[in-house]
Design a protein that fits this description.
The complex is a heterodimer of chains A (324) and B (319). Chain A has 324 residues and is an alpha/beta fold. Chain A has eleven helices and 14 strands. The mean pLDDT of chain A is 97. In chain B, strands 1-2-3-7-6 form a five-stranded parallel β-sheet, with helices on both faces. In chain B, strands 4-5 form a two-stranded antiparallel sheet. Chain B has 319 residues and is of the alpha/beta class. The chains are: A alpha/beta (324), B alpha/beta (319). Chains A and B meet through helix 3 and helix 4 of A and helix 5 and helix 6 of B.
Chain lengths: 324, 319
């Protein structure tokens, strides 16, 4: 084990996968010597050269489309889209092309590509640099959607995403980037579609995604001192969803809080709420509560942040609410 | 590269096969045998001339009117009819319109419905050849309706800036569905857009199969040699409505249509073959009968083919 940041874990995953398989290439804007908008491509072009690190013009439909076409011919692109907001520019190629190409090719060629999206709130980012649009992609058959919350998870899941034969939309919440954590030295691949219980508890389940996982764990620690046992579950992969682990936790505690950074309406947590209503209804002792972002574009001023970005206080309040 | 009399007769056979196939497809669609058909009658010289000299390892990506590419690259007639009938006995397996057909062993990658979105996809296939050190060339087919899409510009720019082995192939039939070119496309012409990206470009008589073949071969040779993309604009005309789904005719005049019918690519090559003494009228009539038999057998095959089980709908959404 060694302690590295979430950001460093992303670099390690990509470098190790590019060493393992020469079909893996990196594409995106400023991914060369500049090191990527996210700082996660630093040093990669130096090792692999410009035939495997492909700097792209600002033309997201163009190079996302090209990544799909290249994948059909056996290349395995990792596409850094930078801001998750930018993915919306390429929505046609992601949803109409990438998500459908395995179906069209019926197993004889695959759109095996990973689209890395730097998502969520960024101080002073504003409305087009702060979105968490995971639910839009999780809605689409043909896409897999991943949102890791820890350094260990991001490394193991990114490796699995790169090895997957399906297009994977890989969300990297900005709020997770500086997190430090222990990551194994060996080649740990975390299978897509496995949730993880981040801390066990008997009284209430908080099922949280992305940056909300860390906030939920902080709340759990605080409430433990008050004698409330909070179980925190991270789906990690949003599609396919590990329904079993989520349902088991809900059945165990009977009280559920769902937490996401994205604005709440039609968000990903609504899908989990529906799942639990269907499969854990008899075990529930209280209505499911959701915690999410405000129904507004994300504003610029940091003074407005507490109103718009869901924080620990909102999780804590929701827990108290379901405990009655 | 130069075409022998034997080659010319092969070209004639392929042109006529597309024509007879489409006549039958229109008849069957109108008779309600299948939902819809996007025809390209009158444009046969383009797929035949473009694909005749390709290797199976070269890639093509098509538009709605890509039937001719599928036939010329070797997809059997019966399979394509089965695709139109939404039967199992086609690579589309009743799940997709035939322009989404994929047959990688024939170099056919799935086309898309969104007009112009194949241009970046095809550029990616060419990028793969570059990354993998292969000499394969990709042809991206699209119509004049694509040239105002961002995908046209983003795809061609990417291919040009990276000098990828691709031919950007515009079939300009002067109407995007019902929209006349002059009403939709600023600047007066299409080819100057490609020239703006520094691409070698040609405007070709798209009803002259030999001219299309020769232009494509020049472009393919350039791409294989590592000299980057070429833009080919073929001028042609669609005789038929946008599709068989009850589309109304629009601003096209009878005179305009008659003028283009006089430039029929099939009749044109037939006359050339006879005038040059490469074939007799009787010989070409026999070819026609043979093709009509092939088409009829294809329809029989499709009629008899099984429908896919509904569960096929759920296969290979994920691999």
């Amino acid at each position: 084990m060694h302690e590295i940041s979430y950001q460093q874990a992303i670099i390690e995953a990509m470098v190790e996968e590019m060493r393992r398989d020469e079909a893996v290439v990196l594409m995106g804007e400023d991914v060369g010597t500049f090191g990527g908008l996210t700082g996660t491509t630093v040093g990669i072009i130096e090792e692999f050269g410009d035939t495997r690190v492909l700097e792209m013009p600002i033309s997201e439909c163009g190079f996302v489309g090209a990544s799909v076409g290249a994948a059909l011919k056996g290349v395995r692109p990792i596409v850094e889209l930078g801001l998750a907001d930018v993915s919306l520019v390429a929505m046609d190629q992601l949803v109409n092309s990438a998500a459908k190409m395995n179906y069209f090719h019926d197993g004889v060629a695959s759109a095996s590509a990973v689209y890395r999206l730097w998502s969520g709130f960024r101080p002073s980012g504003g409305a087009q640099m702060s979105q968490s649009n995971e639910a839009m992609f999780a809605h689409v058959p043909g896409l897999k959607v991943v949102m890791p919350s820890t350094p260990r998870d991001v490394k193991g899941l990114l490796k699995a995403a790169i090895r997957d034969d399906n297009p994977v939309i890989f969300f990297e919440p900005k709020g997770c980037y500086a997190l430090l954590g222990e990551v194994p030295e060996d080649d740990e691949v975390i299978p897509l579609g496995q949730a993880q219980v981040k801390c066990s508890g008997a009284d209430v389940s908080v099922i949280a995604t992305g940056v909300m996982v860390g906030k939920a764990l902080t709340v759990a620690k605080k409430l433990a001192a008050e004698g409330i046992e909070v179980e925190v579950v991270d789906p990690r992969t949003l599609r396919p969803l590990d329904t079993e682990t989520l349902v088991a936790s809900a059945c165990k505690t009977g009280r559920v809080v769902l937490a996401q950074e994205a604005s709440q309406f039609c968000g990903y947590c609504a899908e989990i709420a529906a799942l639990l209503a269907d499969q854990a209804f008899d075990s529930l002792k209280a209505p499911i509560k959701r915690v999410g972002g405000a129904e507004t574009p994300v504003p610029l001023s940091p003074r407005m942040e507490p109103l718009v970005v869901p924080g620990e206080a909102a999780i804590e309040a929701a827990i108290h609410s379901v405990l009655g | 590269m130069s075409l022998s009399p034997q080659d010319l007769k092969q070209l004639f056979r392929r042109l006529l096969l597309i024509r007879r196939f489409e006549e039958e497809a229109f008849r069957l669609a109108v008779a309600g045998k299948f939902a819809n058909y996007h025809g390209g009658m009158g444009q046969e010289a383009i797929p035949v001339g473009a694909c005749y000299g390709l290797k199976p390892t070269d890639n093509t990506m098509i538009t709605h009117r890509g039937l001719g590419v599928l036939l010329t690259r070797g997809v059997p007639v019966g399979e394509i009819f089965a695709g139109l009938y939404a039967k199992e006995s086609c690579p589309t397996r009743g799940r997709h319109p035939i322009f989404h057909m994929a047959a990688p062993e024939l170099g056919i990658l799935a086309g898309t419905t969104m007009v112009g979105s194949v241009i970046p996809l095809a550029t990616g296939a060419a990028l793969a050849a570059r990354i993998q050190g292969k000499s394969d060339v990709t042809i991206s087919f699209f119509g004049d309706g694509s040239v105002n899409r961002g995908d046209f510009h983003e795809g061609i720019n990417l291919g040009a800036v990276r000098k990828l082995p691709i031919v950007y192939f515009c079939e300009n039939n002067f109407y995007a569905k019902s929209m006349p070119l002059e009403a939709s496309t600023a600047g007066g012409n299409i080819v100057s857009r490609a020239q703006g990206y520094g691409l070698p470009s040609e405007v070709v008589d798209g009803n002259d199969v030999v001219a299309v073949y020769e232009a494509t071969q020049r472009a393919v040779a350039r791409a294989r040699a590592g000299d980057g993309p070429t833009f080919i604009e073929c001028l042609t005309y669609r005789w038929t409505p946008h599709s068989t789904a009850g589309d109304r005719e629009f601003s096209r005049t009878d005179e305009e249509l008659a003028g283009w019918k006089a430039k029929c690519p099939v009749m044109r090559l037939r006359k050339q073959l006879i005038a040059a003494g490469h074939a007799s009228a009787q010989e070409l009539d026999a070819v026609d009968l043979d093709i009509q038999r092939e088409v009829a057998e294809g329809v029989e095959f499709a009629e008899a083919a099984p429908y896919a089980a509904p569960g096929v709908a759920l296969e290979n959404v994920y691999l």
